[in-house]
Amino acid sequence: MKRAFLGEFEEVVLLTVAGLGEQAYGVTITQTIETKAGRAVGFSSVHTTLQRLAEKGYLTSHMGGATAERGGRRKRFFSLTALGQQVILEVRRVREQLWQAIPPQTWQLTGG
Amino acid sequence: METPPRWATWLLTAFSHPDTQEEVEGDLLELYAHWCQTIGRRRANWRYSLNAIRLLRPLARPRSQQYQPHLLLSTDMIRSYITIARRQLWRNRLFTLLNVIGLSIGLSACWIIYRLVAFDLGFDTQNPNRDQIVRIVSRFVFDGKESGNPGTPQPMADAVRGHIAGVDRVVPMRGREADRVLIPQRTGKPLLFTKADQDISPVLVDTNYFRMVPYQWLAGQPAQALTQPNQVVLTQQQAAQYFPRLAPDQVVGQTIIYWDTLRMQVTGVVANLPYRSDFTSQEFISLATDTKRYDPVEWTNTNGNVQLYLMLNPHANRTQVLAQINRLSNQRSAKALERWGSFKRWHLFQPLAELHFGTDYRDSGRRANKKVLFGLIGLAGFILILAIINYVNLSSAQVPQRAREIGIRKTLGSRRRTIVFQFLGETAVITLLAFGLAGGLAVLFFGTFHELIPVGIDTHVNWWGLGLFLVGLLVGVILLAGIYPGWLIARFQPAAVLRGQTGLSLTEGANRLTLRKSLIVFQFFVAQVFIVGTLIVNQQLRYALQADMGFVRDAVLTAGVPWRSVNGPNPTQRVALKQELLKLPGVAAVSLGNQPASNSYSSNAHQRLGLKQPIEINLYRKYVDVDYLPLYELPLLAGRNLYPSDTTREYVLNETAVKAFGFASPQAAIGALLKENGGEANRTVPIVGVIRDFHTRSFRDAIVPVALMTNRDNLDGFNIRLASGQSASWPKVIADISRVWAQFYPDAPFEYKFYDQTLSDFYQQEQQLAKIINLATAIAILISCLGLFGLATLTAHQRTKEIGIRKVLGASIASVVTLLSRDFLVLVLLAIVLASPLAWWLVNQYLAQFAYKITLSSLALVGAAFLSISIALLTVSVQSIRAALANPVKSLRSE
Questions:
Q1: CATH 1.10.10.10 fits A8-103, yes or no
Q2: What pTM did the predictor assign?
Q3: Is the ipTM of this complex over 0.90?
Q4: A31 touches chain B (CB under 8 A)
């Protein structure tokens, strides 16, 4: 299993896309991250990250859903590829393993 | 709805990444609306602009290619065109073949004629002094007829030099006959070269010649090469012949003996001219060798071998210079001309560019008739146009078959220009195939008809001009042949075509049909003119070759007395030889004298004495001996044959002479006295006999007044009549004659010719013309028939249903055939009717040049018409009969 080169923000974006399913496009992803993760994230960084993830092959996209609100412009919907799924699951496994390895006493000092 | 800041939107539109531009703009718009509602407009503007700036990618290039409109020929389209063209041409094999054959005939005709014409037009074009060089020629009026001579009086060169302004250089050139040359060797006998194995054609020139015609000097000093007598300059080719193993430097200083007596020293060797030239002499002897001083009477003599060239000053007024020369010539000849009576001569300038075309001036070199050249060009043009007309006809008639393909192409967005180019491409393929075939045809032609091809056509070929001509021809034919059908096709309306209208109206509408019909009429018009021409030319030729000339010509040989003996020391030798020959079995008669009909002649003005007003005519002389009349069986109308004599004592005239002198009858002429102008003064000679007229020249010329006379010294030919009826033994007899000849003239070989052959050589030009016109007629007929055949096929094909219905309704095969053929025959008849007057006029013009000709009857026209009609009928009926025999079930079955 090769090392998963996934940045922190990229991981967040990937998870959001996975969570949104059919409706994952630029606007919804940005707004979800803002509300769910509570971070002030700019659309441009989300857009750039999405492009990078697509280049790496973790996301695939298709065009569709033009509305009058957008001036007739279509949206680009993103979805997770099989490779993307593998990567995100791997990341989660690694985190889980590391969390498992922490002894329970560590949390008592901070009120666990 | 609030709009975001316009400048930010403009930045986004102009500089964002092209691949993601659309969704970025849309997303930002959506977000902006959301921000306007959540955080207010000002902050929304701020966020929008910030994001827009952060999303700028000014250096981004679009990754995916848009569909770009291709240039005229993208590889895919070319591939498509080639496939379609191949399939199209293969599916219609017959028409492709017809077109290829027709075009190849036209192309090869153009190619061949280009070679012939370019050859004759390319003489002396590379001479750097071309514009300044003129030759002085002479023209005479003699007996009411004007004639030309390429020579000038011998003293003219000195008279002009230095005395006439505007003349930069005077270049005399005198040709001399030499039939043998001796090269002394260091050891042993001198090497002999005779005219039989070797071209020996010396001219006498001075150094000005080499300034007029620049050569490259391989050895020797140009300035001193021909300044002294007895010097000779050779060309490299000649030097290699005479001195095979010597280098040019070594050849200089060698000795050559001309005319057995004159020793010449080689003072220079020049390289042969690298271009075609009429200056063909290979050895140049210094003019100074000719030491004979000439007396003023020489001003009246004009010999074709004594020629004078001038290099004129570019600023000189040519008319004035010519006028001065004429004045000079008249002045100096005036005195000597006093005795000669009616003699008019003047001079003209013949520029070097015209030299090769001066058919009026008999010269040793080849002369081309400009009219014939233009005629040939016209011929080639005609044939090519016929072939192109065929192609246009056939392809435009085939267009309906491709209607659907065109409709679909147009619907899919093909431009008109593209479609036209596609069809030009198909034309190009056919033309290239025709080109290849034409090459083969041309090679075949050059191999079979080599007597029509001038010698030397393959030397000094201008390859660039040739290539340029071929490319131009190719492009021209493709354009001419392909534009019209292509244009027709491009006019199709796709909607109409796809709906099922086959577009026949486009090609079978009134206009188109008329065009096609008139093209056929034109083709057969040309063919008909050619047919009539061929018939008449061949008939006239046959007549000229076989008709009675007025004397016996079977079994007669002629041989020239070796020239050295003519003026040599022993004139009785030929008489003795004659006696010996008479002893041979198989020899029926021998006579010494000029041939009865020949190309050379000698004539002089004679006066009839004893009248108040002396009648003077130009009498043509023939020197004969007493056995001449019996040998040629020339019947006497009055008087008697000549008596033997060594000098001229008596005349025997022909009928024309008798009439010209105004005698009432042949009998009345006997005993009358004639006086020759300028001859031995006061010599009057009586007429002792009158013979019936015989032809002295070809049938082109009328019979002239002729006088036969004896003169031992001027008898320069042997006329030998073999015993007829024993042609099998002639070779043996000729061998015997040869043997006896060798006893009397050991140095000169017995060169004989059958008189029949000499006479038929008169008509060499006519024979060539007959060959050419036969060929041209065959080609014109072939091409016209190709076209007719193709069209008949197409018409039959298009009318299959109609024919099927007719047959079902009971039409007989004959009526169907008539139906199909009638249209075409009407066209052919129209063509014949139009062509006949033109053909009649043309052959009359042709025959007008013959004094003795066949009588032209309308039978010829009728015969030609009949021939044309049968050929057309044959061509059309093949397809008509096949269509008429078709099974109507098959043709009426709908799929």
A1: yes
A2: 0.68
A3: no
A4: yes
